[in-house]
Amino acid sequence: MFTNKSGKVFAFFSAVGLLAAAFLFGFAAGRSAPMPGSRDYALIQEAEDAIRTYGLHEADRKALVQGAVRGMLQSIDDPYAAYLDPVAFQQADDVLSGHFSGIGLLLKQDGKLVNVISVLENTPAHRAGILQADVLTHINSRPLDNLSLDQVVSRLRGPGGSQVKIRLEREGQGPLEIGLVREPFDLPSVTSKMVPKQKMGMVELISFTRGVGGTVREAVRTLTAEGAQGFILDLRGNPGGDFYEAVEVASVFLDGGLVVTSQARFGPKIPYEARGKPESNLPLVVLVDEGSASASEIVAGAIQDRGRGVIVGTETYGKGVIQQTYRLSDGSAVKLTIASYFTPSGRSIGENGVIPDVNVAGRQSQIARAQEVLKGILVQAPSAVG
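Structure (tokenized):
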């Protein structure tokens, strides 16, 4: 899940942004927690006893404990903090692995509105005719008011073959009721193709699942062998994912050097440099939009700061922090913001996002402009084509 200064929130099928940067977090997450016998611990115990002893309605102890954890997370200055019950935590991990069961929507939360910003092809949502810019208002007849995006997505997901009913608002049509059957499927994190009649390879990333860096590298290698003389890397609508995979994807195009720097609450700044040899030094254009967040911004920011390619599209979302999920003893987890990150030039993406070198709106217009820019680079610098 991603949040910026305007309060907008993204999620991709489940709680995305389990950004693996574990060695950054050498501090003990629970070292200030109340210990048995302490005054703080006693206060918590007293409150539980009062609720269970004198409350009009019987209180489930597990529900009280989960409520206490949620309350702690809500009390800190961290808009990304969240409690994931065991099912939600497993779902989130499934998404990063690229395997899950759901209906195939990419969602954005803006205030109380939950907007559809992308629909995966060949999924229940796609076959049902759900469109980008539809607004999700109800799930199984329950309104989404006061729900976090994690909670919304958790209600959309479920075992393959199970049913879910949703209500949408569509401009010019009013409310639509749609019944869907959830399906298990693999998230197609990378698609690639040659642009027809042009020697341009297009590589699109949907999310930064585990292993996506190697998949991008293989796609670039294959397209180069097929005669690609330049590349368009499409990061539009990609809300991010695994932190290390962002470094791996950038490494496909960068010849060593800095990709990103992180700064945790404790300890020094930690630089991450491109790994291995670049797969391509051919001309590069990167497509971004307001749906490009987190790991997408790390890649786009590195390409831009290093002068490796041209950024085309609209300003990115603006998420400049890293999250880590800590598993608890009962299989649930807490998700916390644990570090900020900066582009090679020292920019904080959380302030303004990545500003394109060429600003253009509209998906088809963006693709056409990206091809024009890449064609211009190829014409101007034929010696760069290997």
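DSSP finds ten helices and 21 strands in the chain. The chain has a mean pLDDT of 85.
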